[in-house]
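Q: Structure tokens for this one, please.
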Amino acid sequence: MKRREQSQTEQLRQALAEREAQLQEARARLATLEDSTSLQVGRALTAAAKKPGRSLVRLPRDLYRLWRRSGTTRHSQQQRRPGAEPVRSFDADRQEARLLAGAVGGASDLLIAATVLGPQVQRALDPYIRAVPLRPHDAQIVMDGVDVDLVLVSASAAAPGSPWAHVGDPAAADRTRALHWVLESAAARGIPALLLDDAPTAPGLRALGFDRVHRGDAGVPLHLFNPVAAELAEGPETVFVRDTPAEPVPDILTGLGAGAVDADAPGLADALRAARVAVVPARGPHAEALSRRAQACGTRPVPHDPVAEETGETEGLAVAVPRLRAAAPTAAEQRTMLREVFLADATPVRLAEILSGLDFPPGTPGPELPLRGRAVAVLADPAGESEAEGLADSLLASRLRPAEVVVPDTAGRLPGVQRLRSEGVTVRTARFSTPDTPEELTRGDDRTVRLGGLGPDRWAVLADRATAPWAHLWTGPVGPDRLVDLVCAVECSDADAVGTVAAPAAAAGERGLFDRPTGEQYVFVSSLVPELARTALVRRGWNPAEWNRRGTRLLALGPDHGPGTDRDARGPAHTAADAPTGAVG
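A: Here is the predicted structure, written as tokens:
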């Protein structure tokens, strides 16, 4: 049974035990009440009133017997409870309600939010929150029946044609009244309410009583805007992104054969992937967001400001577009643009910033949940002090700080590992049952991928101690941006593992076309040398050469040539051509 299933089973068992204790207490109280003199006197008087004949004659005798019995009753001898009553907390009550409502894992994995969102915002937030959509006709019923952490509303939900069209406008009083009731209910329960002011809307929407109003959208959703499969996208090399459907395409772009796409069109991401240059508005509420989306798709954005171009303040489209369209962005440029979006403007980063400082109810994990999916555990087996120092230098210089580091217990006291502890990095140790021997290193299937001298079973032992969802198999020094690029790649693609493509071996003195580095990145492949993988996948101890056959999604990123890499060091710093068949070491 998986650990998550065990945790859920334990939670259900604990909730059942607490309910059983409450039931035993209720039974004890009922028995005490039934044995009380007051209840028996009341029953005797009721019987005498219903049948005055015979019962009225027996009433004095019954009352006398009750009086005699009450004098001999020892109130100290009460029925003992079967066990100590558990302390009920609000956290336990909320967790139990979530389990019974079917929201298993919601408290630990994702924030549960009652949402009134536009379609684009809904798609952007899907991987990061567990949405409970509200509609005007069932908002009260849903709010009464679910336990949520947040009420999230976007101004784009008030667009014409949506269920909440014109909410906040006096002409839509019924929808405004329903949303106002939702906010009042949330305030009474201590649930924060947030408004994403991402579109023009009626002023009455902002005045409904939100705890926070964020001016802007939810950031760049990298699972929608990314360069994955960009070579398969079809379209013109230049695209004009219209902020409004009525905006005309400039004549100079029409002469250059540029296409046009609306900023809110479903095919915006594909149009950006197919183009080399994207002309976006230089001003307006969506100017910065459109520029960032183009960069995430690997397209160079060109801001378009007709007034500035007429006065000569900026370079005209007739010069800028042909110059930038002459050559596609290089792999390094594409990765740099995507990296900056990942670090500063991606949806989990923006969502964490928006939620910070809100007063969440007890039992809510907090605003750090959107970024929890980026947590990485670095698995490493430094052979000596020099490799431990290289591990510390590599991780402390990384732009994405790992959540934890897992090393064998024999390496736990190396100076480099101790330096990681002193810098606040969580270090865990694992114990191998038997040490690796030279015979074990050479024994087994030739297709078994060994990383840094360790086989899959050894990596599984290290991964078993990790708690982060992702594991980085450290085999040598890497650049400060490598871990950022790896985590960004899985956020873009939802892949199970990311690494470099392993090239087949060539005969002595021969090198063919397929022995050269492919240079492919953000491409799904059938096999690779893994650098970042799901921790649960590494725990299984499977041979990485067989991961694809077991249903995993493998994404190639290309080698790391950034500063700080050691081309002579073992591990993923090598190119695909440098890696020998079935081994990296």
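A few notes: The two ends are 34 Å apart (CA to CA). The mean pLDDT is 79.
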